[in-house]
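Re: beginner question about structure tokens

> Can someone show what the tokenized structure looks like for a real chain? I only ever see the sequence side.

Sure, here's an example I had lying around. Input first:
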Amino acid sequence: MDAEFWHERWRENRIGFHLEAPNPQLLAHWPALEVPVPARVLVPLCGKSVDLEWLRERGHDVVGIELSPIAVEAFFDEHALPARREVTGELVIWHAPGISIYCGDVFTIDAERLGRVDALYDRAALIALPPELRPRYMAHLAALLPTGAIGLLLTLDYAQAQMAGPPFAVPDDEVRQLSGERWQSTPLGAPRDALADNPRFAEVGLTGIKEQAWRLDRLG
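And the corresponding structure tokens:
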């Protein structure tokens, strides 16, 4: 993962991927997963997503992981959440009631440092990674989440030749391949047309883009 690319995006406020409202797929599918409250929900590469606050307001103990300190600070400022900071090695962990965000490289965080997490919400992590890093990422998630954990994964699919990414196209067949023996991946409903809600994609030449929601179950 090119850390400097993402640091530059946040420094220059080029964050067209940030949504001002909770993701419609989260609203549609999270309740059906029946994740118990209070479950500890992991949100990797979380940015300053308002989805974090949506999950927290529903009683979950939310754990984000984000590379950019600009994004982390902005999240707590924009939600008026006083946070205390804990420095541990190369990580800075921001804590507020019901939410913690680990600021650092997702691949440097192990299960011992993270603590137990019960569920996963991935809106922007897998699709942010180039193909060569995706198998490593899915294996890393399997090391962080215990058997029986439930996840909601959102992917995008489009003609990759029309846009370099990120976000990258991750077709259905690749999701199933990446799931391997560690995850059971089940599509939730039909793909959603993401072009209408994201005019920036049309501006760069995309003629169509679909967002698919998946249920992930951590297998033994």
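Each token stands for a local structural state, so reading them left to right follows the chain. The longest helix spans residues 134-144.
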